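cron nightly-structures :: item 1 of 1
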Amino acid sequence: MAVDSALVPMFTEAMQYSRQGLNPGGLFSNKEYLEDKVQFEADLPEEVVNILYDPQTSGGLLFSMPASDAQQYCKKTGFTIIGSVKKKGEKALTIR
C-alpha cells in the first residue's frame, strides 16, 4: 500500500501539539513496532510522521476498493482517497 501523506486529513491543532512535543507515548511504541514495515519516501516533517504513528488515529479508518468505485463512493460520502494498493515492495507500507 502507498499513502500520500499530503492527502491525509490532519487537524491544524494536532500539528501544533506535535510540534510542541505533546505526543501520546503510544506513538513511539507504534513507531518502534512498525519501523521494519513502513518506508517513508519523502523527507516529512517530524510532526507529520508522529501524527501518522499516533495510536489515537489507528483502527478502522482505512479500507480498500477498486479505484473506479472509490471515486464514486468519495463523491457520495465526502471521504478522501489517500493512497493506493501497490505491489508489495521491500516494506508493506510506503508513505510519500
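cron nightly-structures :: done
The chain has a mean pLDDT of 89.
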